[in-house]
Amino acid sequence: MPALPSPRRLLVTGGCGFIGSNFVRFWLHRHPESRVVVYDRLTYAGRRENLTGLWGHPGLSLVVGDIADQAAVRGACQENGTDLIVNFAAESHVDRSILGPLAFTDTNVRGTQVLLEVARELGLRLHHVSTDEVYGDIPEGRRSEETSPLSPRSPYAASKAAADHLVGAYHVTYGLPVTITRGANTVGPYQHPEKALPLFSTNALLGEPLPLYGDGLQRRDYTHVGDHCRGIETVLLRGESGQVYNVGTGEEITNREMARIVLETLGGNQGLVRHVADRPGHDRRYAMNVDKLRALGWEPGCGPREAVARAARWYAANRWWWEPIRGGEFRSYYRRQYAHRLTGDAGVPSPDVSGGE
Ligand code: DAU
């Protein structure tokens, strides 16, 4: 099947979020002739500051809106002659999905379906940014392929899996041109400090404990956001309609090792690691086979250890970005999520982050 036509006018939903803003920056740098409309609700994690230095670029504009608002999405697409919707917009934090799951269904499931409806009405292509979490917990020795069954285990993962199914269904039923990428645990600049890597980095910089869930031996494929964005670009330029592509390094490290690298990189004391009560239903391992994306000519630029170190260095160099976030609403979230964990007994082994994993 021939590759899809190269996109020129993009509506990037969630373009002020973590991966979305990195993608917008990357795309406009690589494709300065194209036009990008960022469509974002500007929630706690979607921030104008994430595109600092880019506002004023002739190819960039912002529409503030909800992806679940069909008229607003349609209007933004029509006004800008959009040919491709790239959907990064999502409620993305597993821990928040455990505290309040309904918002995840509203945005991740209904919101994605609204985008599909608009794409269907206006004859647009849609690329959907998904996650390795849809495959569920992967036993040692196995890797998820794009055709593996979906087995999500958190409200967040379930909402993303539902969205993936809807995207697939619109392709089959209506012939809508769609592609999906399923990304591994992504790290890098502008990731909200509620997520493990920026939380650990900023806590290390503040001399505060790093709350490691359970025994910390869960395995994740920490992938640098730059590699993730290049993976999406590869699919946008050379992917096949109706196909799913995994994006990751193809290698995993434990969360203990991630914490150790963060502290080593930032010169923090390894004794700052605290084993705390685990996340309910915590998946032990995510691991994907990324050969399908490799076959399109993409390679990760670095493995998980370097990705973690590079990301940690960014937080050390960019306090201007995260200090105001940590001073705001984040404080009450942090108390709710961690106060009992950091004061109580997690009932797990004492910290040992020095050993091999
Ligand atoms: O794998 C892809 C997914 O990666 C994305 O779909 C999600 O949107 C993204 O948030 C991320 O999900 P995780 O649950 O893996 O990310 P998080 O940064 O929350 O946690 C990474 C690992 O670290 C996970 O095993 C849980 C653990 N963790 C997390 C936090 C916040 C801790 O040990 N302590 C913590 O305080």
UniProtKB/TrEMBL annotation:
Cofactors: NAD(+)
Lineage: superkingdom: Bacteria
UniProt enzyme class: lyase
Classification via Gene3D superfamilies: NAD(P)-binding Rossmann-like Domain (3.40.50.720), UDP-galactose 4-epimerase, domain 1 (3.90.25.10)
Keyword Transmembrane helix: no
Example GO molecular function: dTDP-glucose 4,6-dehydratase activity
Catalytic activity: dTDP-alpha-D-glucose = dTDP-4-dehydro-6-deoxy-alpha-D-glucose + H2O
Disordered: annotated segments: 136-155
Protein's GO biological process: nucleotide-sugar metabolic process
Stored InterPro entries: dTDP_Gluc_deHydtase, NAD(P)-bd_dom, NAD(P)-bd_dom_sf
NAD(P)-binding domain ranges (all copies): 11-308
Pfam families: GDP_Man_Dehyd
EC code(s) of this entry: 4.2.1.46
Keywords annotated in UniProt: Lyase, NAD
NCBIfam families: dTDP_gluc_dehyt (TIGR01181)
Similarity section: Belongs to the NAD(P)-dependent epimerase/dehydratase family. dTDP-glucose dehydratase subfamily.
PANTHER family (alphabetical): DTDP-D-GLUCOSE 4,6-DEHYDRATASE-RELATED
Protein's name in the database: dTDP-glucose 4,6-dehydratase
Native species: Deinococcus aerius
